[in-house]
Amino acid sequence: MNYFRLNYVFILVLLVQCSSTVSNSNTEDSVEKRLQELGIVLPEASSPVANYVNAVQTGNLIFLAGKGPTFEDGSMIQGKVGTDLTIEQGYEAARITAINQLAVLKAELGSLDRVKRIVKVLGMVNSSPEFTDHPKVINGFSDLMVEVFKEKGKHARAAVGMGSLPGNIPVEIELIVEIE
Predict the structure, then answer these.
(1) Domain with 153 in it: what CATH number?
(2) What local confidence, expressed as pLDDT, does residue 48 receive?
(3) Domain count, the chain
(4) E-assigned strands of the chain?
(5) 85, 93 in Cβ contact below 8 A?
(6) Helix (H, G, I), strand (E, B) or coil at 122
């Protein structure tokens, strides 16, 4: 009888240790913690200004409406890349847009840890006709997705030039995400 009791206690101790290890690794690997380490504070998700929604979920996919580089006070980065803004400034605008999209995603999901994969990104760059480095601009968005989600952040992508974008913003980016 002591043999069974000893095995039972041993199994309980192992289960507690395993669950503690699993939850510590999940905490260490959480997206929220990674955002903190990167010094990123998500703003409150902005509300649409017309007759559309920020996101639509169908099955395990969420389609996010296009967002641009808007700050919490409502001000926006403006200008055409290649004329008014450099590639580096466009890159930063795309990075700010990524943070705005993460805020929308968190508002929709409650936790960014539910993201299984960043699937597809459509990056539109407001640029002069002769500008051809659109991918270098949208890298600001893509690089942040990989910093935040690691392998799950790698995605298919299009980076295209536009003659103009709403409010003269330099980038607008749409996103498709697979969730758990």
Answers:
(1) 3.30.1330.40
(2) 86
(3) 2
(4) 55-58, 61-67, 115-126, 156-162, 171-179
(5) yes
(6) strand
How far is 15 from 26, CA to CA, in rounded Å?
16
Distances (CA, A) of 137 to 106, 108, 151, 152: 24, 27, 21, 21
CA 89 to CA 118: how far, in whole Å? 24
**Are 55 and 26 within one domain?**
no
Q: Does residue 66 share a domain with residue 20? A: no
**pLDDT tens digits for range 115-172:** 999 999 999 999 999 999 999 999 999 999 999 999 999 999 999 999 999 999 999 9
Domain identity same for 21 and 105: no
Residue type, 122: L
Domain encompassing residue 18: 2-30
First and final C-alpha spacing in the chain: 44
DSSP-derived secondary structure letter, 119? E
Residue 14 and residue 78 share a domain: no
Task: For residue 5, report the phi and psi dihedrals to the nearest 5 degrees.
Answer: -65, -45
